[in-house]
Specification:
With 188 residues, this protein is of the alpha/beta class. It has one domain (3-184): Rossmann fold (3-Layer(aba) Sandwich). It has helices at 17-28, 56-66, 84-94, 120-132, 161-184, and strands at residues 3-9, 33-37, 70-74, 106-113, 136-137, 144-146. It is globular, with a radius of gyration of 16 Å. The two termini are 16 Å apart. The relative contact order is 0.19. The model has no long low-confidence stretch (mean pLDDT 97). Bound molecules: flavin mononucleotide (FMN). Flavin mononucleotide (FMN) binds next to helix 1. Flavin mononucleotide binds next to helix 1.
């Protein structure tokens, strides 16, 4: 049995270090996790006016989440909070009212920053939102990645042994968390 993991990259940057981090995480993850990116850059800005008739991009997002067993958020911190593009995607997925795509969904949060405190504050904002959305978050380990030049190559190769071990452990714990949540709350 494999688990389908949908993952958000919270950055629209063509040179995103969080995308680089995502490649490392996928390389280091247990073999029974399969990954599909959930794109956010094609979504219009959410408005309740769309609730009666979602645009195809937003419908596709909700369908992709429904096809996932778990969601992984890999995001930078913008001004000590959630990047707007990611928050917009979450808002789309959480609506229309009563059709919240994150309800009971196993989830985890990780992020990379060029700064020393590595997305710690932004992740707290994201966790608060996911909490309201009733996602079943992994609370530990936390992972705040200070991504210095050369630490991870573009293809996701991690050049530091302790970082590789930490990220491997994070993904192993995530797999355990997903299995635990789905044992108690199987996906419909
Ligand atoms: C609008 C904006 C706000 C930012 N705010 C923060 C911040 O609050 N904390 C932080 O550590 N870095 C901040 N940064 C720097 C990011 O860590 C850096 O740009 C990083 O490369 C973003 O991740 P990405 O490459 O995946 O897009 C900010 C960058 C931008 C563009």
């Amino acid at each position: 049995m494999t688990y389908q993991v949908g993952y958000f990259i919270g950055s629209l940057s063509s040179t995103s270090i969080n995308r680089t981090l995502s490649r490392a995480l996928i390389r280091l993850a247990p073999d029974d996790l399969e990954f599909t990116e959930l794109p956010i850059g094609n979504l219009p800005l959410y408005s309740p006016d769309f609730d009666a008739d979602y645009p195809p991009e937003a419908t596709a997002l909700k369908e992709a989440i429904a096809a996932s067993d778990a969601i992984l958020f890999i995001s930078p911190e913008y001004n000590r909070s959630i990047p707007g593009a990611l928050k917009n995607a979450i808002d789309w997925a959480s609506r229309p009212w009563g059709q919240n795509s994150f309800d009971h969904m196993p989830a985890a949060v990780i992020g990379a920053s060029i700064g020393q405190i590595g997305t710690a504050v932004g992740q707290q904002s994201l966790r608060a939102v996911l909490s309201f959305c009733n996602a079943r978050q992994m609370t530990a380990p936390e992972a705040y990645i200070h991504l210095t030049p050369g630490l991870i190559d573009d293809d996701g190769t991690v050049n530091d042994e302790s970082t590789a071990a930490f990220l491997t452990d994070f993904m192993s714990e995530f797999r355990t968390h997903v299995a635990r949540v789905l044992t108690v709350i199987p996906r419909a």
